[in-house]
Amino acid sequence: MTQRPNDTRLSVPRDTENDYSLDAARIRRDFISRRTGADLTHTGSFSISPEITRGNVENFIGVAQVPVGLAGPLRIDGEHVNEDVYVPLATTEGTLVASYNRGMRILTEAGGVRTTIHERFMQRAPVFHFDDARGARDFAAWIDARTEDIRGAAEASSSIAKLSHIERYAVGPMLHLRFNYETGDAAGQNMAGKATYAACEWIAANHPGGARYTLSGAMDTDKKHSQLNVLHSRGARVIAEVRIPSALLRERVGASAETLFRARLNSFAGSVMAGSANNGMHAANALAALFIATGQDAANVAESHAAITYVRLEDDGETYYWSITLPSLIVATFGGGTGLPTQAECLDILSCRGPGKVGRFIEICAATVLAGEVSLAGAVVAGDWVDSHEKLGRNRGKR
C-alpha cells in the first residue's frame, strides 16, 4: 500500500518502556507485514536476545541472515599473528569463498604472507573560521604553541584516545585542523569526534577573542575515499607481501610469473585511466565479507578498500614478488557490532575478539585481501574467471 501525501503519517511502533523485547520486535513485524504484505518468517527467526542489540540498531524487527563460508588455512608471518588461520567470510556471491580459498592455498604453499602495520590513526577534522587569511595564519601559530594543552583537553574526554598529532591546512580565511588519534582496539570515529569536540571547546575558551569552528570540515572523510587517506593514512596502514615461485603459479593458476607480471602492467595502465582508488583486483570483496562476518561497520569498506599493488619479478623471472598496501583499513575488535553473538563467534574463529587483538585482525584482513588478488588475477589471465562464476555462482530464480 502506497501512502499518499495527505494521509496521516503512521510511525513505526515503539515501546517507551522496553523497546528491545521480543514483543516489541513482533509488533513491528506485524505492523510492516500489514502495510506491505511481506512475510517476515525468516527475519523474525533468530537466536539472539533483542536486548543485546541496544546501541547497535533502533526499531529492531529481526535479523538478516547472510551465509558464512570458511576459507583457509592461510599462513601469516606477521607481528601480531604467526600461524595458519581459517577465515570466515559472509557473502552471497558464489565463487568468492572458493576463490579466496585457492589464493590462501597458493600463499601458504609459497611460505606464507608477511604482514606489516606502519601506523594507525583515526581522525576528526574541524575547520576554524576567521575574518581573513592572516587571522587563520596567526591561529595556526597559536595552535602550535599550545599543542600540549590541546592534547590534555582532548585526552581528558576518553580513557583510550591518545592525540598523536594535528595537521594544518589553510584555505582562504579558514584553517582546517586534522586531529590524529590512537584509539586502542576500537575503530574510533565516535571517540575521535568526542575528543576533538573537547579540544575545540578548550580552544574556543582560551583563544584570544574566542574561535568559531565547525566540528567537521569534511577533511576527515568519514566513509568516503580520499587521496588524503592514501597519503596520510586513516585507520591502519598495513602491507601484505609474498614471494611466489613461478612453478607454483603455473601449477595452481596455469600462468607463469612473467605472464602475470605483463598482465599487471596492463591493469596498471587501466587503473590510471579510470582514476581508480585501487590499482589491484578486488580488495572490497574480502573486506566486505570479513566486515559483515565480524561485526565491523560495513560502510567503512568505502574507505578501507583503497589499495596500492606493487609487483616485481625476481630470480630471473622465477619468483613473483607481490604486495598490497591498504592505507585506510578501519576495523575494530572491541565495541560496535563486534560483541554481537554471531559476529563474536566469527572473531573467535580468528582469535581476534576483545582488547589487545586489533593488530592481529588488521594483519589477517590484509593477508586475506592478498589471497584474493592472487586468485582472481590468476583466473583472469588463465581465462577461467567466467567459467568459475558459471559453475559456482549460478543461483538464479531460487525461492
UniProtKB/TrEMBL annotation:
<dbReference type="GO" id="GO:0015936">
    <property type="term" value="P:coenzyme A metabolic process"/>
</dbReference>
<keyword id="KW-0521">NADP</keyword>
<dbReference type="InterPro" id="IPR009023">
    <property type="entry name" value="HMG_CoA_Rdtase_NAD(P)-bd_sf"/>
</dbReference>
<dbReference type="InterPro" id="IPR004554">
    <property type="entry name" value="HMG_CoA_Rdtase_eu_arc"/>
</dbReference>
<dbReference type="Pfam" id="PF00368">
    <property type="entry name" value="HMG-CoA_red"/>
</dbReference>
<dbReference type="InterPro" id="IPR002202">
    <property type="entry name" value="HMG_CoA_Rdtase"/>
</dbReference>
<dbReference type="InterPro" id="IPR023074">
    <property type="entry name" value="HMG_CoA_Rdtase_cat_sf"/>
</dbReference>
<protein>
    <recommendedName>
        <fullName>hydroxymethylglutaryl-CoA reductase (NADPH)</fullName>
        <ecNumber>1.1.1.34</ecNumber>
    </recommendedName>
</protein>
<dbReference type="GO" id="GO:0008299">
    <property type="term" value="P:isoprenoid biosynthetic process"/>
</dbReference>
<dbReference type="InterPro" id="IPR009029">
    <property type="entry name" value="HMG_CoA_Rdtase_sub-bd_dom_sf"/>
</dbReference>
<comment type="similarity">
    <text>Belongs to the HMG-CoA reductase family.</text>
</comment>
<dbReference type="GO" id="GO:0004420">
    <property type="term" value="F:hydroxymethylglutaryl-CoA reductase (NADPH) activity"/>
</dbReference>
<keyword id="KW-0560">Oxidoreductase</keyword>
